[in-house]
Design goal:
- The chain is of the alpha+beta class.
- It folds into three domains: 101 residues, Beta-Lactamase (2-Layer Sandwich), CATH 3.30.450; 72 residues, Helix Hairpins (Orthogonal Bundle), CATH 1.10.287; 140 residues, Histidine kinase-like ATPase, C-terminal domain (Heat Shock Protein 90).
- It has eight helices and twelve strands.
- The strands form three sheets. A five-stranded antiparallel β-sheet has the order 2-1-5-4-3. Strands 7-9-10-12-11 form a five-stranded mixed β-sheet, with helices on one face.
- A hairpin with a 2-residue loop joins strand 4 and strand 5.
- The chain is elongated, with a radius of gyration of 29 Å.
């Protein structure tokens, strides 16, 4: 049975030396099992020092099982592994039985993701400084010219610069949205939604929060970012006079509007990066929303609001009653 499980198996006793290994474990190092039998654990597992082995052994009780991720080294090869070690007694003698699984592929993927995140952080820095500064200069000159000259061309340039500003903001948010969720605290949902509303250009739009204040467990800054993006999406697609409603649900909250809504055939695609149902949208805002939701281990669903508009339902939220 041990030979057929498909993962490495190693057994060692109180002296710390391997008494048995299967072929799958030996294959990690390109050797026969006999090359490992009799070797002390600390020669193969650098995380365990020879001087500390006795203390490590005595920390187990019969039946104890522990999981760990570490590295095993032999024959010039170092392999990242996930281990499950259990202490069992046979005939009054204790042994440690360990299963050892090669996790090289997962570790390589995690390292690549980490490198990608570093590149995204560098990109975010460029967007924040090297692009926004000249854009601000250009917008300043346009404002000066518009004080003296009334031309449609200047208005078009001003609109284009505003559009670039929105694009830069959402690109920056997208680049930073993969970072891990920070400290989760008790957050007042109504107050946070109102703060987010004030950060969105909504001079004619209306926000309605009909329920009493509820508190949720969330990363406050990321949750505010979620609201801001949903509000911008409502204004972008529902018009400057759109009515937005934030409601508490049994397992979370929803953000709905009275705009044109999202056709059923397009609801599965709106969270794709860069996808938009309107030519004026950037397609980044809802992708950011989904990443924030996923970071909290929540779920987001799209439905039709009572007024025929879009309704975004956030589920799986923990309330702080």
């Amino acid at each position: 049975m041990v030979e057929s499980v498909g993962v490495g198996v190693g057994i060692y006793g109180e002296d710390g030396r391997y008494t048995y290994v299967n072929q799958s474990y030996a294959d990690l190092f390109g050797v026969a099992p006999s090359a490992l039998i009799g070797r002390p654990l600390w020669e193969v597992v650098p995380a365990i020092e020879a001087a500390d082995f006795d203390e490590y052994w005595e920390s187990f009780e019969d039946g104890d099982t522990r999981e760990a991720e570490t590295r095993h080294t032999h024959n010039g090869r170092t392999v990242p592994v996930a281990t499950v070690t259990t202490q069992r007694s046979i005939g009054g003698t204790s042994y440690h039985f360990g299963t050892i699984k090669d996790i090289s592929v997962r570790k390589a993927r995690e390292q690549e993701i980490e490198r990608q995140n570093e590149r995204l952080e560098n990109f975010a820095s460029i967007v924040s400084h090297d692009l926004r500064n000249p854009l601000n200069v250009a917008q300043g000159y346009i404002e000066m010219l518009q004080e003296d000259i009334s031309r449609d061309e200047l208005r078009l340039v001003d609109n284009a610069l505003d559009r670039m500003g929105v694009l830069i903001t959402e690109l920056l948010e997208l680049a930073q949205s993969d970072r891990e969720i920070g400290e989760v605290t008790s957050v007042a949902l109504t107050a946070l939604a109102e703060d987010a509303w004030r950060n969105v250009s909504t001079p004619e739009a209306e926000l309605d929060i009909p329920f009493g204040d509820r508190r949720v467990m969330a990363d406050e800054s990321r949750l505010q970012q979620l609201f801001e993006n949903l509000f911008r999406n409502a204004v972008e697609h529902g018009g400057s006079d759109v009515r937005v409603t934030v409601e508490a649900t049994d397992d979370g909250f929803s953000v709905a509007d009275d705009g044109p809504g999202i056709p059923r055939g397009k609801r599965d695609r709106v969270f794709e990066t860069g996808y938009t149902t309107e030519g004026t949208g950037t397609g980044f805002g809802l992708s950011i929303v989904q990443q924030i939701v996923a970071g909290h281990n929540w779920e987001v669903r799209i439905a039709e609001s009572a007024d025929g508009g879009a309704r975004f339902e956030i589920a799986g939220v923990e309330f702080d009653e």
